[in-house]
Amino acid sequence: MSQDHYKTLGVSENASQDEIKRAYKKLAKQYHPDLNGGNDTEFKKVNEANNTLSDQQKRQQYDME
């Protein structure tokens, strides 16, 4: 496992889909490369974490690893 997606988004492992969505939106806005002070690398990490944790099947598979 290369990175901890829960840690990347700042949520617990038993976070609800709503909590994941809120954390993603906040961090995506903070790190968006088109905004002043954006960080492309962090934005990609946040995006990857959201893609994994927001999909129920991907999240189950990730939790088993």
In short:
The protein is mainly α and 65 residues long. 66% of the residues lie in helices and 0% in strands.
How would you portray this structure in words?
- Helix content is 66%, strand content 0%.
- With 65 residues, the chain is an all-alpha fold.
- α2 (17-31) packs antiparallel against α3.
- It is globular and about 35 Å long.
- The mean pLDDT is 93.
List the helices and strands and how they pair.
Layout: H1 5-9, H2 17-31, H3 40-53, H4 56-64
Helix pairs in contact: 2-3
Q: What is the residue-mean pLDDT, rounded to a whole number?
A: 93
String of helices and strands? HHHH
Low-pLDDT parts are none
Say how many strands there are.
0
Distance N to C terminus: 7 Å
Q: Output the radius of gyration.
A: 12 Å
Compute the number of helices.
Answer: 4
Structure classification: mainly alpha
Strand residue content:
under 5%
Helix content: 55-70%
Reported for the largest beta sheet, the result is: none
Shape: globular
Name the features.
65 residues; mainly alpha; 4 helices; 66% helix; globular
